[in-house]
Amino acid sequence: MSCAGPGGGSNDVQWCFSQVKGAIDDDVAEADIISTVEFNQSGELLATGDKGGRVVIFQQEQESKNKPQCRGEYNVYSTFQSHEPEFDYLKSLEIEEKINKIRWLPQKNAAHFLLSTNDKTIKLWKISERDKRPEGYNLKEEDGRYVDPNTVTALRVPVFRPMDLMVEASPRRVFANAHTYHINSISVNSDCETYLSADDLRVNLWHLEITDRSFNIVDIKPANMEDLTEVITAAEFHPNQCNTFVYSSSKGTIRMCDMRAAALCDKHAKLFEEPEDPNNRSFFSEIISSISDVKFSHSGRYLMTRDYLSVKIWDLNMETRPVETYQVHEYLRSKLCSLYENDCIFDKFECCWNGNDSVVMTGSYNNFFRMFDRGYQQDVTLEASRENSKPRSVLKPRKVSTGGKRKKDEISVDSLDFNKKILHTAWHPLDNIIAVATTNNLYIFQEKLN
Amino acid sequence: MINTMECAVDAQSLISISLMKIHNSRTQRGGIKLHKNLLVSYVLRNARQVYIKEKYAEIYRMQQYEEVMTVCNEIQELNPLDLEAEDAEDEEQARAACCGEEVSVCGSPCHRGAVQPAAHCRTPGALSGCCLLEDVGKEPEPSYYRSCCMEAPPAPHCDQFPANSSAHCNKTTVLDLDTHVVTTVENGYLHQDCCCDALQCGQGAQSSAKKRKVEFGCCASDAEEAPDFTAARKRAKREDCSYSAPDYTDTSNISNLISIFGSGFSGLLSRQADLEQICSKQALASLGAWTRAIVAF
Lengths: 450, 297
Known about the structure:
The structure holds two protein chains of two kinds.
Chain A: E1 15-21, E2 34-39, E3 45-50, E4 54-60, E5 74-81, E6 86-88, E7 93-95, E8 101-104, E9 112-117, E10 122-135, E11 159-175, E12 185-188, E13 194-198, E14 202-207, E15 210-219, E16 232-237, E17 244-249, E18 254-258, E19 270-272, H1 285-289, E20 293-296, E21 302-306, E22 310-315, E23 324-327, H2 336-341, E24 351-353, E25 359-363, E26 368-373, E27 378-383, E28 399-401, E29 410-412, E30 424-427, E31 433-437, E32 442-447
Parallel strand pairs in A: 28-29
Antiparallel strand pairs in A: 1-32, 2-3, 3-4, 4-5, 6-7, 8-9, 9-10, 10-11, 12-13, 13-14, 14-15, 16-17, 17-18, 18-19, 20-21, 21-22, 22-23, 24-25, 25-26, 26-27, 30-31, 31-32
Chain B: H1 11-25, H2 34-78, H3 85-100, H4 130-134, E1 170-175, E2 182-187, H5 195-205, H6 226-232, H7 254-269, H8 272-284, E3 294-296
Antiparallel strand pairs in B: 1-2, 1-3
Helix pairs in contact in B: 1-2, 2-3, 5-7
């Protein structure tokens, strides 16, 4: 990560602009709004989902010997329509086609598999390459027309001939009708056979091969809906323990469950909760303590949670409070009323770990995103914008001025553009390459290599 | 863009904004978002708590002032020139009579029976405004409703509503120094308001009944029935999140809704029998008691 100043003992990672994907228009079509970003396990593929129900997959070029200082660029590999808008006639409700989450399955063969979900339905997609096609059929012309068998005088064996690479995406499974409420998370188990899906009140466990059944493993729906006090906001499987998963709530708590203990995991094995600071009590305390994202570290030792103003790191062995807390944009605390009026207070920011769990990243407003180096206890604010989009230009750290006097190059809180928000970010699992989604553009930044 | 001036956090405007959000969520694409509506209902609850406290404080102050003025006027009419001791005593008693009666906290904008001649026993609305009693003779802090921060909720004493882990409930104990009568009023909750029930209550209340009997169906004051209020809380949290108040279609008619909440609370919060007792005791006992009452919390 970039050092905030002349670095004494810091990790001197500097970030450079690499690419930007998406339209340049300021007039953003709603369907083009990016709603999820995810690298696969090798980092070779980068998937995005949007509000229009489409999935776009980028593939990293092989590193060329000509340009050793550049890691491969990401180019469009496949685009497909994953979900369509639907109408629930019984409830007279439209079901949005927006892709809420994409999760890659670990690769087992030449094809790639991913799960994508909207509010109600999860689909398993197979993305495969085709670079050969059969030619020389006896009963079919090259264009597909059938040949009159009477005209066939000799037989030949069809052969595969090379063709232009074609990437096909086909839906292999559709997991539907298991969620009454809006799905907010999916997570693939380390056993590579099962996965979980979570909505506001329930978590279901699926087998990847079986679409007509799922097991409900968490149900927090009260007998009387008027007693409802919290909802599930995110859920994730432990990266190595196939029996363990966590789910976060709108009350700022995280529950860890062990599927070996009981079939229904309503009773948690661990409860991670930090007591509220009474000095910070306000009308909006409940809103800003709601957790919008939860992510295990790659090691499985830590949990990261994101609420409206902060990122917290929890040690799985300590439930009483987080081991680290990072303020993302504390200067917004005095603006909560306005943010409530314009609905920004409901924005759900995500967060992510870098490959070795030493740095965490999350988004903010004005197209700013923040990185927190856990080891060096440093943080930096960077901006994803077209102005900084010259190839390999180094990103300059940004600063928001909170005091009365605004220094040069600082931006005041009141000048922040709250329509430019970075909700989704992803970090390459092995390298210092990050993907940052603004409203309708995807920025890719890389570490500056000398 | 955020206004350069930090917006004044007025509880009433927050309530109307929140109700508008809930109303608009019905027509949003993709169906009602349970999570968002739940969070909005929390803001609504918080704002309502503040609003009611403010209202009660305001009404109490107004009533005190009016009573004093009424008595002074009466005294002047009787014998403006005669300032003998017994008159002074009468005056004091009369003044005490004004101040001494239990304040009707049902007041709210509807002013149902709120402004009564001094001698009547006021409708024993629930003493939900705990700050009302606490702050006898004390102005509520102005910063209280100007900033984004609410006062920290008092330590919950409430065991009536175990289902509610975040109950903000107050127990107010009043010691009358003259009669040495200790009365306790439990303020069950402030956030367990009952919109639908409140509306039903509201219908009855608006017929200007003086005594607010907790006869509004569910608004019984027994502890056992308290969970019904919990149950009736927050219609916005239902799956369909419909704010199902039957008459509530016009989101601009906020003041009526708030007044209904006010009446709904007062009906919900007290033990009717105790309050009637208080009322009669007050009427009979030395009426100067209230002005010297100590409120123990």
